[in-house]
Amino acid sequence: MSYLGPKVHIDLHQLKKNYQIVKSEVGEIPIMATVKANAYGHGAVEVSKALEEEGVRYLAVFTIDEGIELRDAGIKTDIFIYAKFDPSRIDEASKYNLTLNISSFDDLKALKAHVGNTVKVHLKIDTGMTRLGVPFEEAEAFLQEANQLDSIELEGLYSHFATADEGDLSYASSQLSKFSDVVEISKKLDMSFDFVHCSNSGAILNVQDSRFNMVRTGMLLYGAFPSDEVPQKLPIKPVMTFTAPIVEIRDVKAGTQISYGGVYKTKSDTRIAVVQAGFADGVPRPWYIDGFVKFQNQDFKITGRICMDQLMIDIGSADLNLGDEVLIFGANEHGNIDINHIAKKIDSTSYVLVTALGIRPKRIY
Ligand SMILES: Cc1ncc(COP(=O)(O)O)c(C=O)c1O
Hints:
Elements: E1 7-10, H1 12-26, E2 31-34, H2 36-40, H3 44-53, E3 58-61, H4 64-72, E4 78-81, H5 90-95, E5 98-102, H6 105-113, E6 119-126, E7 134-135, H7 139-147, E8 152-158, H8 170-188, E9 195-199, H9 201-206, E10 214-217, E11 240-252, E12 257-258, E13 264-265, E14 270-275, E15 292-295, E16 298-301, E17 311-314, E18 325-332, E19 335-337, H10 339-345, H11 350-355, E20 362-364
Parallel strand pairs: 1-20, 2-3, 2-10, 3-4, 4-5, 5-6, 6-7, 6-8, 8-9, 9-10
Antiparallel strand pairs: 1-11, 11-14, 11-18, 12-13, 14-17, 15-16, 18-19
The site of pyridoxal-5'-phosphate has 11 residues, from α9 and β10.
């Protein structure tokens, strides 16, 4: 039976191609692929399996539960947990071979008090994101203290950029200079880390001397640039294509009000199609103002507010029929709607758009 609802098509071949493109960009430097938040809406298990087949060195998720989900699905690759360290879950982390983020003196204290297996950790220094991480000024004391703990395997040292995907890179440069100082301090203390990392997608493109000996990337693998202020030379392409079917077509007179609030009225007699996808599925609600969908390379304006489960488009006299699947974003035989274009129009980001996908759209791999 054919499925009459929104679909998210995930092209794992394209994901692998994007991975190889990033890999050839960074050369020998190992990649930590960010697959948190269900691989940015793309499906964490499927994406992780595909990247594992390509030989990715590390995967990163946000929570321990996301890590366990991957282990339960048979993923063997190392997995890093970005979230704030949770002392109550050290044993689980060790059991599932998850690498933990250690980002405060209290974290070290809790590790010291813990009896049990050792855990692999990466130490996080805050160089200007002002989120997790030991303040840069206290890095030396932090490193010294961590170095004295027997219950941990010190595998990584890292930081995170706040503005690496922006046109003005002065703040990113100051973060990089602080992080480089921390790396020097660690050398002075005779500490060595297998992985020293601070590059995200923006930095891979924009701050090339921040690669150290690992890069963390998410968005580039999914085929979108982190913003429109980065160089866009890498030939990555979107992995995700969002489509939805026309489920109703009606003839309406000029001046007909459409959808909630009546903010849209038809200018002439026309045909309105109801498309089965709404904001609960991940169609960004503010997009109705400038928004359109595509079919056979033609744009069809979204008319009136996007509803929770449906939206309406003006199809005029075009040859569109019940069951036809229109393109909401991504690229397919009907054309290309770049999520960064939508993001820019609605003052959002590609990250918000892909992770806003609901659970209803059927994932097709
Ligand atoms: C700590 C950390 N590193 C790396 C990434 C990957 O970022 P991007 O998708 O921009 O490469 C993220 C994503 O938000 C992150 O939180």
